[in-house]
Every structure is written in C-alpha cells, then in structure tokens.
Design a protein that fits this description.
By secondary structure, this protein is α/β, with parallel strands linked by helices. The chain has 11 helices and 7 strands.
C-alpha cells in the first residue's frame, strides 16, 4: 500500500502549527512515525518522553531511547507508579484511564518545565475512544493526537514508515502487560513476570501475533486461527516451556488471536 501524501502533508502542517511538542513516546509504530515527522518539521523543538514501570515489557525503554537517538531527539525516560497505584492494581475495566491520567499529568508539567507547547500522542484515526479509556483521559487533559487529526490509519502509518525506512514499520502492537489480566483480577509483579517470560518463549516460535492471557495458574494462548494447528503440533514443547514460567495449566484459545479479547466480558 502506498502512503497518502496529502495526509502526510496535513500531518506536517498540523505539527508546524503546534510550534513545539512533547511526544509521549512508546517506541511503537505509531509514536515512532510521529516522532520522526515531528523531528523533521520542528527540529530541536521536540522532546520525547517514555514511561517505564513494571507493567511494560523489560527493554522497551531502552529500545525507545535507541530510536530517539537515531532521530537526534532529546529523550527522557520517566518512572511511573505502575502497581503502586491502587486503582490500577485492582484492574477495573477503566484501568487505563488512571494510568494515562497519571502519565499525562506528569507530561503536562514537563511541557511547562521544558518550554514545549503541547503534549502529543500516537493515537491514530482507527483508535476508538469508546473502547480505550486511556484516550478519554488524554482528551480530557488536552493532549493532542496529530496522526488522528491528519486522518492517518494504521495501514497508512505502516506504509509511510516503510517509505522512511523506519524499523518499526512492521512492529506488532505491544500494549502493557496488564492487558493480559482479566478485569477484576489483581495485577501482581509475579503475574507480570510470568506473562513476560511466557511471551518471550512464544516469540521464539516466529508467530505473526500472539498473546498469553493470564488466568492465575492457567495461561490461555491466543495465536492467529491459521496457526492453531501449528501450536497443537508444538504442544509437547510449548506446555513444558510455559510450565517453567510458573503456569500449572496451558490452554489454546480456539477463537484465535484478537486484540482486546479481555473486553469481551464487558
């Protein structure tokens, strides 16, 4: 797919109109493209900030730092509360709202400290605030979403990222590890580590997409429907590997991988 030049030009005009920006930078495909274009348009008037806590996969902050250096962009990693936030730890359906509220409160303070005009995020035109409490928090706090304002969707973002030679063009979405827990189940450091170790193993199987959903001592694996047979064939390897991470039972979800499957109970 070729990227839509008119939307890209619109994105650049939007960023120019902001004057200076603090980019909430996760290192994913969306925020990396946003940071790349912001640095092109605004130069030194860009600051990238990455949040780090135990709910994010280890190593993500370091990857984000490496990407920011490639753009010659100022970059700061901040520590956020994570499990120290009682509302977040209890894992209600609007868990992300509290997490983002904390993050954007910090980032808005940083815009004043560093002389930036706006906080911007990587929300794109396909992201729906009705299903994303974190987007609601951003909107309430005045965070701008230039990719969405320009009308760029996920496929277009990946296409333009490929055009720019960004290594994140094909990077799978990687929401925080707390998204693997059913709502109402307390998020624990031990559980987060189990999920992380289990998903590190699945990464070695070269699957296009996957998730390990954490149900206490049971791991529910989601892979694309086209790979269900492959996973059954690999069961004698997969089951003991996940048991080594702390799970007693290992199950394969027959509906296959789907983003946001934990929302199906809502």
């Amino acid at each position: 797919m070729k990227y839509p030049i008119e939307k890209v030009n619109h994105l650049k005009e939007i960023l120019k109109s902001y004057g200076s920006v603090l980019v909430a930078f996760s290192g994913g495909a969306d925020s990396t493209l946003l940071l790349s274009v912001a640095c092109e348009v605004l130069g030194s008037r860009v600051l990238a900030v990455t949040a780090d806590s135990e709910v994010y996969p280890p190593g993500e902050a370091e990857e984000a730092s490496s990407l920011a250096r490639a753009f010659s962009c100022r970059h700061i990693v901040i520590k956020t509360k994570g499990l120290a936030g009682a509302a977040f730890k209890g894992n209600p359906p609007d868990r992300c709202y509290y997490c983002k509220k904390e993050l954007y409160t910090i980032l808005l303070c940083m815009t004043r400290e560093h002389g930036m005009s706006y906080v911007v995020d990587g929300v794109n035109a396909e992201d729906d605030a009705r299903d994303r409490p974190g987007i609601r928090a951003a909107s309430e706090m005045g965070v701008r979403s230039p990719l969405r304002e320009a009308g760029l969707n996920k496929h277009e973002i990946r296409a333009y990222s490929r055009e720019l030679g960004l290594c994140t063009a094909g990077k799978p979405a990687s929401p925080c590890l707390a998204s693997r827990f059913p709502y109402g189940m307390e998020i624990t450091r031990e559980g987060l580590e189990m999920v992380h170790r289990a998903e590190l193993y699945l990464k070695t199987l070269d699957l296009p997409h996957f998730r390990v959903r954490h149900h206490g001592d049971l791991a529910r694996i989601e892979v694309p429907a086209s790979h269900l047979g492959y996973m059954v064939e690999k069961a004698t390897e997969v089951v003991p590997a996940l048991k080594e991470t702390g799970y007693t039972y290992v199950a394969l979800d027959l509906l296959g991988y789907r983003a946001g499957s934990m929302n199906e109970v809502l």
